[in-house]
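Collaborator request, handled under Task 6.
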Amino acid sequence: MDDLAENNVIKFTNITMKKGIYYANFKVKGTRNGVITTASISVDISALELHSGDTLEKIIEKSAELALREIKKADFRFDDMSYLGVAQLG
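C-alpha cells returned to the collaborator:
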C-alpha cells in the first residue's frame, strides 16, 4: 500500500444526528484500473451491537466494519439513460 491513490481508502469524517438518529459518516476514495471512485457512507449507529459506555474509537471501528461489509455485498446497476433525453441507438 505504498501509493494511496491506487487503493480504496475509507476515512472517518464525523458523527451527525438526523431526526434523532446518530450516524457515523465516512468518505471513500480510490482508483483502480483507471476508474476513480468517490463515495459517502453513513452508518446508523443504532444498527450496531454497541453499549452507551463504548468508546468513540470502538463506535468508529464497528461502523467502518459494517460499512465495508455492506459495500462489498452491494449489487450496483447502471441507471437507464433515457431520463436524459438521449436518443437510443439501433
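The cover message to the collaborator said: "Helices lie at 56-73. The mean pLDDT is 81. Please let us know whether this matches your experimental observations."
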